[in-house]
Amino acid sequence: MKFNRVLLKLSGESLMGEQGYGIDSARLNDYAEQIKEASKMGVQVAIVIGGGNIFRGLSGASKGFDRVKGDQMGMLATVINSLALSSALNAKDVKVKVLTAIRMEPVGEFYSKDKAIEYLKAGYVVICSAGTGNPFFTTDTGSSLRAIELECDVMLKGTRVDGIYTADPEKDPKAVKFNEITYDEIYNRNLKVMDLTATTMCKENGMKIYVFNMDKYGNLIKVLKGEEIGTLVTA
After folding, report:
1. How far apart are CA 183 and CA 200, in angstroms?
2. How far is residue 93's CA from residue 108's CA, in Å, rounded to a whole number?
3. Does the pLDDT value for residue 58 go beyond 90?
4. Which end of the chain is less enclosed by CB atoms within 10 A, N or C?
């Protein structure tokens, strides 16, 4: 086994599947099945999921929403996605806890590091929702923070692309994929892997990032087994 404890960052947009908005039940089921398999392998899995399929604070601000209110709406969108994933995991008999960065019992328990680690050690999948609980921070930063706090071996960034490229492979057919890249190269090449705050946090705390295509069924297990199907970010 390559990893003991991981932070899995899921994209809210990926939850839309082919729908263009909201939550696609087939995609949700795919995610839940792979997470169940990871848990059965004995890997401790913490999850942070975005909210872009429902509401994105930054785009809300560009449409006239107050930025703080917009970001708070985005945080609530991540809670909705977390509850959906929790429900899908429950249906597969996976033990799961939803922890929220903002108090909202009984929707979820208020997040604390000690509580989250206790649940992970007890075999629960732990979904950390509502970002950092603060405006002006993305869920990428939220996932970096949780990965570092929870002493994870790696942050797995599940996207719809199979790694990091020299340019956007969906726009540039000549883009070349990296098997491994440093944080500094990401800065210097101005690659849009995560926002700068999230990348800097990982760099300063030595948190490795592994970027892979989560939308292809079975890829999560391949990553956990050590197959090199994505891009590793290290110092």
Report:
1. 8
2. 18
3. no
4. N
- Amino acid letter, 233: V
Cα separations in angstroms, 146 against 4, 26, 99: 16, 27, 11
Q: What is the 3-state secondary structure (H, E, C) of 97-144?
A: EEEECCCCCCCCEECCHHHHHHHHHCCCEEEEECCCCCCCCCHHHHHH
Q: 77: part of which helix (H) or strand (E)?
A: helix 67-91
Cβ–Cβ under 8 Å, residues 4 and 44: yes
- The pLDDT tens digits of the residues spanning 121-179 come to 999 999 999 999 999 999 999 999 999 999 999 999 999 899 999 998 888 989 999 99
The count of other CB atoms within 10 Å of the CB of residue 221 is 16
Helix (H, G, I), strand (E, B) or coil at 88: helix
Map tokens 């509580």 to a residue: 115
Q: CB burial class (10 A; 0-12, 13-18, 19+) of residue 164? A: buried
Confidence of residue 1 (pLDDT cuts 50, 70, 90): low
